[in-house]
């Protein structure tokens, strides 16, 4: 909302007010603006010309954003090129994804959605608001209820600047707070939660450990910087392809037989998966994955999957299934 008083004809303040309301998607009528600022219409026309020239210069004459006269609405408005600005369709899609993720508490979710919707054209804001109205009303945030924006930002900076961090962390299986010295290499989101991916200081582990951000009670980003050997160089995209349920473990190559409903769902779930053979309606699939999480996912496929290799992992799966059977005896 503009804080400039009606009737204030000071040129800098007048230009700021016009610029602000144009950015908010409002339609500006020359006669109404002249009355608002107690100046003549020629003065407003010169203001509009200056703002138009600013956009031409600021956006390198490439028409990404233009100040145009809309004959239907009888006023001036900003026209943004779809390839450079979020469209109302994109804003709606992002809003839907955010709500489904349940990743933020109610205050942070509302803050995000309100700012997103403000990017839409004024006449489209009502439509987007109505479409997601029910989902917003019944939004069910996660139990931890913590603010995450600042935490995500701080750890992302530590990753980029390669700075050591100290954290006080509580595991899901314990109420005891543990202090850890970490070398952070990534911050990612997966299935409801944000995670810090980090190597433990002075540890011989050749794979990173996953920490849920909301379980970090306190943290301190140190001035000390770290280096990761090239062989341990962490790439978030590659990590995502190989991890399930954010459980790491050793990286391994597995082969399994699948005869469930949708092989496509398997390939979507395991981006490194490759079909190496097909026997009637049964597929032989191989994939490179981290051990602990993949075991949980494979078990979720019930009787429609059989692990073939490695033999040690096949044996481990068999023992787990036998223990599960014991639960029903």
TrEMBL record:
Q: Give start and end of each WYL domain.
A: 155-220
- Known InterPro entries for this protein? CBASS_pafABC_assoc_protein, WCX_dom, WH-like_DNA-bd_sf, WYL_dom
Residue stretches making up the WCX domain: 264-325
Q: Which UniProt keywords apply?
A: DNA-binding
Question: What Pfam families does UniProt report for this protein, alphabetically?
Answer: WCX, WYL
Q: Which GO terms describe its molecular function?
A: DNA binding
Quote the PANTHER family the UniProt record gives: PROTEIN PAFC, PTHR34580
What is this protein's name?
Predicted DNA-binding transcriptional regulator YafY, contains an HTH and WYL domains
This chain's source organism reads Orenia metallireducens
